UniProtKB/TrEMBL annotation:
Full protein name: Acetyltransferase
Family according to the record: Belongs to the transferase hexapeptide repeat family.
Active site residues per record: H141 (proton acceptor)
Swiss-Prot/TrEMBL site (Increases basicity of active site His) positions: D142
InterPro entries: AcTrfase_PglD-like (IPR020019), Hexapep_transf_CS (IPR018357), Trans_hexapeptide_repeat (IPR050179), Trimer_LpxA-like_sf (IPR011004)
CDD domains xrefs: LbH_AT_putative
Positions of substrate binding: G71
GO molecular function: transferase activity
PROSITE patterns reported in the protein's UniProt record: HEXAPEP_TRANSFERASES
């Protein structure tokens, strides 16, 4: 990666990405875009502050890559809209992979994917564009994770799971093997998903059922 970087956003997710960019010894972040005029965060000291999205035109798409530092929470489309806005202007996004993550050589990570610290992504898994695989998440083998997903901290995605676009897997949630989760689903924090989930659903909680194993196999 030889182009300089421009950070979109200046909140918590952007600060974590700034740490990773430093650890990875990537090219410098030459500017950040944030509407916040009273912003006072040491992480961005000395870096050009662009207050409006349109100010990006000070940098040619030929010279910079963008890093989407806007975090992702359920029911918030802001991050995705910004991606579309900048793509339409011809800008491309950097893919950031923490040096403290384990990513299989056979995994495929699309443009703009962000893999944070202590993530594991196993063999033959694909992660589509602009998805965040957040701190400590596990994505097992042969998964197909959709675009603009957020796998929140410590989410566990077992093997052969498919997710549609815009899915949020909440922190510490578990999806068992072979499940399909359709687009725009929210899996709540700590939930365990054992059935396929239809689009635009919210999944809460975990229902433990106790079945006598002897009777089960009679
Ligand atoms: C680096 C970072 O910090 S990344 C951030 C990671 N964060 C996450 O992944 C959070 C994911 N979000 C959640 O789990 C949310 O609670 C959601 C999206 C599932 C639900 O949000 P909302 O629809 O706003 O629900 P709301 O907060 O109004 O709660 C409604 C009820 O459901 C309960 N509830 C909410 N979330 C959950 C959950 N994950 N599991 C069980 N119950 C829940 C609430 O306690 C509340 O119950 P009550 O009426 O008895 O008090």
């Amino acid at each position: 990666m030889s182009k300089s970087l421009v950070m979109i956003g200046s909140g918590g997710h952007a600060c974590v990405l700034m740490d990773l960019i430093e650890q990875l010894e990537l090219p410098p972040v030459v500017a950040y875009v944030s509407p916040d005029v009273s912003f006072n965060n040491q992480v961005f000291n000395g870096i050009t502050h662009l207050r409006h999205d349109d100010d990006i035109s000070r940098f040619s798409p030929d010279d910079v890559l963008l890093v989407n530092g806007v975090g992702s929470l359920p029911n918030q489309a802001h991050r995705q809209k910004l991606c579309q806005f900048y793509h339409q202007l011809g800008y491309q996004f950097a893919t950031i992979i923490s040096p403290n993550s384990i990513v299989s050589k056979s995994a495929i990570l699309a443009q703009g994917v962000q893999v944070m610290n202590n993530v594991v992504i196993q063999a033959n898994t694909r992660v589509n564009a602009h998805t965040i695989v957040n701190t400590g998440a596990i994505v097992e083998h042969d998964c197909d994770i959709g675009a603009n997903n957020h796998l929140a901290p410590r989410a566990t995605i077992c093997g052969n799971v498919t997710t549609g676009a815009g899915v949020h897997i909440g922190t510490s949630a578990t999806v068992i093997q072979g499940i399909t989760i359709e687009q725009n689903v929210i899996v709540g924090a700590g939930a365990t998903v054992t059935h396929n989930i239809e689009q635009n659903s919210i999944v809460y909680g975990f229902r433990s059922q106790v079945v006598n194993r002897t009777q089960q196999h009679e």
